[in-house]
3-phosphoshikimate 1-carboxyvinyltransferase (Maledivibacter halophilus), 433 residues
Amino acid sequence: MNTVKIYPNDLFGEINIPPSKSLSHRAIICGGLAEGVSNIDNLIFSDDIKATLKGMRSLGTRVQCIETQAHKETYCVKLEGNANLKVLDENIDCKESGSTLRFLIPFAGLTGDKITFTGRGKLVERPLDPYYRIFDKQNIKYKNEKGKLPLEVMGRLKPGTFEIDGNISSQFITGLMFVLPLLNGDSTLKITTELESKGYVDLTLDILKKFNIKIENNDYKEFNIKGNQQYKSGYYRVEGDFSQAAFWIVAGILGRNIKCKDLRIDSLQGDKVILDIIQKMNGKIQIEEDLIEVNQSRTKGIVIDASECPDLVPILAVLGSVSKGTTKIINAERLRIKESDRLKAISTELNKLGADVKELKDGLIIEGKEDLRGGVVVDSWNDHRIAMALAVASIKCIDPIIITGSNAVNKSYPSFWRDFAGLGGKIDERYLG
Ligand SMILES: O=C(O)C1=C[C@@H](OP(=O)(O)O)[C@@H](O)[C@H](O)C1
Ligand SMILES: C=C(OP(=O)(O)O)C(=O)O
């Protein structure tokens, strides 16, 4: 059943944080472009990661074998890559994964063959205009209806200067960074507006370096990319995901005590900023090498700039709802073009639970309360981060809540409900699918 009923309860215990979704996409793509065998370790098969794996398979990457570490449900995937892509299936289904779609579109320009990209849910209408402007300039043919998926692309990408906005999605920049080093000439990526989500570009530059690709970064305004480079295969272990850890970190603050394992404290993930935010809000947090421990705390509201950490907003809205005073989330307009309109989704659903959240054009103003009423049905809006945030909000509810659309978690974290129950979350078994 796609619905869960949760009886409010404090969560506590230890949790293995799942691997970073952002780094998993990137590692699979880099491995797929490197001659020889690459072992990408510590993957989970969420819907988004399955979409990228299948997409790379369609482009000729051989997924040689999969080793299971059954006790952890994580996998090591052996990829046999090749930069001379061979299109085996001209239809690439990106499901609901913005990363898969925006990272793989430029590959059509690498092959010159016709490729059709499909998707579902909100993905069919998430913006792709920065790519269309490049295609127009380079005479690459593309076809879609009213700007929506399916999108057909055909034509070769030529090296040169690429102008790209920095404030729609950093995913366009990452997508181009994968393919421009493989063209037969040098390119420059010019960022025409202030770049948001810089942390994600850092992740791309770092993993490219590990796979032997060099890109010169001129203060995030311009990236110089030499052509004719070669990806080198190798072993890559994906580190824990700070965006997912944020749900458990907040759960520990609202509940009792949670220890998060497998996070790298030297990580480049932008969402590592959750640690600073919790500290600024007076949350009790201890950081010891790769173990992060949080304890129940009465937090206070602060101003949070979401431009570098958009994926944290749903769970930070939950924390703000039960913190002392006012929490303001600013520079968050981009949240409207994610899996749901996240500003509308989280304010609507938290208000149903009894919170006081005001939706602004580009942010949220939240007046904190001691606890939430609960006792109602709320919906995930088919968005994994909304479903997970509402689950954590249940900790501070007086009465049980029902979450519809709970399967949305499969997009990034298929074992979320099991982990929630493992930490003491009380889910009515009859509602578990
Ligand atoms: O590059 C990535 O891995 C991502 C970039 C971010 O998107 P935007 O750059 O569109 O904000 C983030 O929201 C998304 O979940 C993952
Ligand atoms: C926005 C997200 O992912 P994507 O853009 O890859 O769909 C997300 O995981 O919150």
Observations:
- The radius of gyration is 21 Å.
- The chain has a mean pLDDT of 96.
